Amino acid sequence: MTTHARFASNAHAARAPRRPRARANPRARRQGNGGDSARRAVSDGGLDAAREAARERDVAAKWAGGASKASSSSSPSPSLVDRAKRAAGRAKTGEDASTSSGEGFEGESCLLGDGIWERLREEAKTDLEGEPALASYLYSTVLAHKSIEDVLAFVLANKLRNNVLLDSQLLELFSSQYKKYPELGKKCLADMQAVYERDPACDRYLAIVLFFKGFQAIQAQRVAHSLWLEDRKALSFLLQNRISEVFHVDIHPGAVLGQGMMMDHATGVVIGETAVVGENVSILHGVTLGGTGTSQGDRHPKVGDGVVIGANVTILGNINVGADTKIGAGSVVLDDIPEGSTAVGIPAKVINRGAPQQPSLSMDQTSYITDYFI
């Protein structure tokens, strides 16, 4: 035998004893113990894929609320009018409406339903179940956060950012102001309830926060106003500029906006520096609360509580629009309007007095106006 043949034979003999170590397939042994042969025959790659799919299902179930956690029995929030009636009853008995059952925020003028934040999350989970393509969007905007303030900070930061104003900077700014001024969150809830109650096209709180630019513009202006009061004028003007560019709403950061405000459609709304808007006011698109002349100082309108201002109304100068007043669409208001009046025309004239309390809640924009002829 040649040297090469002997070497090959020895090498073969050296390898031969190792073969028994690769014993019978362990799957076969497990099968003998009663395992499911088809399931046990899954490859390692298949197992990894199955585990990954299971994890994805678990995550989806978690953020959708899961079958065991889903709650479709949440009762709708009581209406603003019902809350106001309850508050009036408590006022007669001397009970403090602002602290009873958490129904009031800063007095009785704007009382909201309970559990808006919980309702918002449930609506997001419902949408996630019905439209899985929105999972990432709904998680990042709503479900990943712990409060309505956190949601607003995230949504507004992403709406108002640009190439040189980073969303991370804006997120830090909004979060800081919401923590510093808790009343901003309370006013936000009042504004949400106002839109939910008064806009017949709105039946969900989630849509208000994510899609209603009038609501978003008001919340951004409230933060800008808090900066204005801190004498951080440059930053507040920057926010005003971005609000105008993004939402087509120009509200000076010095303007004072009461809670429970609804700005429907919002496009083209202009509110000047010294304007004051009361609580529970409804404003439609194209409204101007402007000054006249070039003099500085207090030069813009003062709008009382419960007022409804129709589309494309212009109110000029340091004049007073009394509480519970209705201004017809397209009117130009140049003089004071008494409380509880209906005014229409160019220039606006008072055509009726004794209007119902807070017509802004009913959004009735035509009563008495249709009987008026110029």
What class, by secondary structure content?
alpha/beta
Helix content: 40-55%
| Tally of individual domains | 2
Largest sheet: 6 strands, mixed
Radius of gyration: 32 Å
Oligomer: single chain
Q: Number of helical segments?
A: 15
CATH architecture of the largest domain: Orthogonal Bundle
SSE order, one letter for each helix or strand:
HHHHHHHHHHHHHHEEEEEEEEEEEEEEEH
Number of strands: 15
Q: Strand content of the residues, in percent? A: 5-15%
Looking at CATH, which topology of the largest domain would you report?
serine acetyltransferase, domain 1
CATH class of the largest domain: Mainly Alpha
Major sheet: order of its strands?
3-6-9-12-14-15
Mean pLDDT: 79
CATH superfamily of the largest domain, by name, is serine acetyltransferase, domain 1
Spatial gap, N to C terminus: 126 Å
Question: How does the overall form come out from the CA principal axes?
Answer: globular
Spans with pLDDT under 50 lasting ≥5 residues? Answer: 11-17, 26-43, 62-81, 83-113
Keywords: Acyltransferase, Amino-acid biosynthesis, Transferase
EC number: 2.3.1.30
GO molecular function: serine O-acetyltransferase activity
Biased composition (Basic residues): 15-30
Structure keywords:
6-stranded mixed beta sheet, 2 domains, EC 2.3.1.30, transferase, Hexapep, UDP N-Acetylglucosamine Acyltransferase, domain 1, alpha/beta, serine O-acetyltransferase, 15 helices, serine acetyltransferase, domain 1, LbH_SAT
